[in-house]
User: Fold this.
Amino acid sequence: MKKVYVNEEWCLGCHLCEYNCAFANSGLSDMAKLKGKTITPNIRVEEGDKICFAVNCRHCDDPICVKSCIAGALSKSPDGVVEINKDKCVGCFTCVLVCPFGCVRPDEQGVISKCELCTKNAVGEPNCVKGCPNHAIVYEER
Amino acid sequence: MGINYIYPEFEVIRDTTRCIACRVCERQCANEVHRYDEDLGMMTADDSKCVDCHRCVSLCPTRALHIEKSRHTFRENANWTGDKITEIYRQASTGGVLLSSMGNPQNIPVYWDKMLINASQVTNPPIDPLREPMETKTTLGAKPRTIQRDQDGKIIDNRSPRLTLNTPIMFSAMSYGSISYNAHASLARAARELGIYYNTGEGGLHKDFYEYGPNTIVQVASGRFGVHKEYLETAAAIEIKMGQGAKPGIGGHLPGAKIVGDVSATRMIPEGSDAISPAPHHDIYSIEDLRQLVFSLKEATEYKKPIIVKIAAVHNIAAIASGIARSGADMIAIDGFRGGTGAAPTRIRDNVGIPIELALASVDTRLREEGIRGDVSLLAAGSIRCASDVVKAIALGADACYIGTGALIALGCHVCRTCHTGKCNWGIATQRPDLVKRLNPDIGSQRLVNLVRAWDHEIKEMMGGMGINSIEALRGNRLMLRGIGLTQKELDILGIMHAGE
Amino acid sequence: MKKEGEIRIPAGCAISSIFSKNGKNICGDRIVNSMRVMHDRSNGLGAGYAGYGIYPQYKDYYAFHIFYDHTKAREECEQFLEMHFDIINLSKIPVKKTPAITDEPLIWRYFVAPLPTKLAESQLDEKEFVVRCCIRINTQITGAYIFSSGKNMGVFKAVGYPEDVGEFYRLDEYEGYCWTAHGRYPTNTPGWWGGAHPFAMLDMSVVHNGEISSYDANRRYIEMFGYKCTLLTDTEVITYIIDYLTRREKLTMEETAQIIAAPFWSTIATKSPEERARLEYLRDTFASLLITGPFSILVGFDGGLMALNDRLKLRSMVVGEKDDMVYIASEECAIRVIEPELDKLWSPKGGEAVIVRLNGGVK
Assistant:
């Protein structure tokens, strides 16, 4: 399946992906309306001494988050996307604990949030990829 | 610290209603203009550090930023302009030579803009390049003087080595050192994909780029940096750099700070040592010496590589070119005074040399008068900005054009003219790894390919309009040009008539 | 209004030719009749003819046809000719006065041979010597213009419509194995006798219909080799190019055609390696002699005729054959009117040279 991959060689650590992610999932009409808000993006830039790269859900073939979900809120779609049904989530956050990449997080409403490749927002394709200035984040089949 | 005489040239204008304090501007500015102020809870800027490179403007996701020229003024004075006054303040405080980058920005006539191109009407049909073949393929190199046949009467191929271009555009010399590894990678890859050539400049050829040899022109300059047997043999052609349009008559100086890692290895000089290219080649004090170097290089490469001699456009250019045409060189590259540079003394850049248009026209005329135009190809450089500049250059007599600044702009350069600081925010004129990585050659090479393909389309459209379906029929075809607003003297030098004639 | 030589003159035109491969004599009135039907392709500002094999009695001598504006020019020119040539015969070219042709200059004809001493002194080959003498007269003697200089051939041209020019020169009194003709439709000349076509150099004559877009590229290149384009017409530069390639570079007519109407690179790429190398060589070496823009030309030369269209065939040209006769004209009607029953009629492709030669000399 097509996934979001990150090539750390080209990641500039500009963090634009985080804002593009937050905006895509915010439902706002203008990114400027993020002003004053604390964003909780589904992609995060990890920065070390000389390296930086963005990390988001790997959409694992055998996702441990799905296995561990006690409410059946997480599932793997036929397309391979690890999806979340927020109505079913009970906020136990087991998935947050088990995700080896730290890519599931509690959101402002007390349920979990994670990257669903922008399939459920108005953008339709990963907005982090669209907005990456250096093609460090790509959406492709590998 | 004393008195600060210099007020910032630019103002960073931030629309606070749109700024979401994502801090991308802060992270992306190597000049450290932007800063997030925790106390104020907002972004602030130090205008004095801004070079107007637009990196922050381009990356700002909410378009909250733009840069304005400072409204701060001196009392109006046509003679003592603000620039002149500021330069004096600067020199009075440092005692140094003013440095600048890129090409001459002064308001001196751009002759490209004073020439108009012809089109066919009635007596001769325009040709539609979408329907009919339209050829921009160009071959460079000396033409044979005589036709030789074997016993069977078949023509013997007695041509000297050639370069073949799919379109009459090449990337001009920019050294690894003055521009980044990724900039070189972009140029090399684009040249290969386009079927044209890029030029190493005088900084040697990085080992990684030997694979692009068939599309590479290597330079031999006065510092001889990075020149060795394999370097010469790998290339498609060798360019002897005698001068550069941005700084005729002076050499080059790449500060030791930039001679790091691979740059040092590629130039074959120790890390941290300044790379100084002398003003002259110290083995060329006259034209006969040049001939010796031309033939030394031909000997070294078994007469398999064409030799280009690159010169800056200066007053006596026609006679100099005539001498070079008789030196055994296969091509002459003429670099006009608007040609770019990574660093040049401001006074030299802005006052020395002549426009490429006039230089090219007078050289082409002179070589034809002497009957030796076929002995060399002419390459025009020094601010070829668009496809119509290429068309005009070829109509004046050029075989092909070099583009340097135009190529860098395609890579993201915003012509802020501060290459000499080494802090290029676009990853082009810098060696700082965190900045270099900003130029991804996958993107860079594609943008260069797009640019040259776009120009090629435009050249074909203009040729078709003129009823010309092959670039060689445009070469030196000065009847296709008319001057506008030029004096008779200028028209005479350009060898064209005035519009309406 | 600028005169010829001061400004470049685009022109539309009619061309026609007749050639007998067996070298039979063809009367000049036939070519005049062919041109008559294409009256509308000319505008009365120039027409002319070239006949080959028309001076058998003087076939070893250069036949100079010269226009003089006044007697003084003739005296000066004859003085020059006497210094450089042995003049075997001189006379006015016989003409028939007609109201359609006015303002005629003095029109003289000389049969000459270079003086051996002068020729040796010049260290040139004979043809080059003759060419240089002609160029000298044309550029340096005001009011004198040599418009024909070949052996056993002659050019007849004037300001007027083709049929009137043919009658004026009494072409029905000449016979030759080959005729070419031209009717001119220039767009910015008041009309000048010397500017009419054919344009000739030694025994090569060119008639051309078209307006080439490569003109200045071609002119500025060919002028490097001692040619001086004084008329600024396409025909002049085409003639010089063909002269340069065939006489100076010793290329064949076929090779010459492959240079001036070179195949497209994409076409060259489809050829066998050897042929590809040959065509690439020609195109690359003589790049600046490629002619673009519309043209159909007829090149008469000693013993042959070449017809050639530009690469895109932007001008009409048809070829008709009947027995040993070859007819080539801008329009089919110009052929049908003199030969209604043709064995073959076809339209050559762009850049495809049609070259006909005498089978075995003149009969």
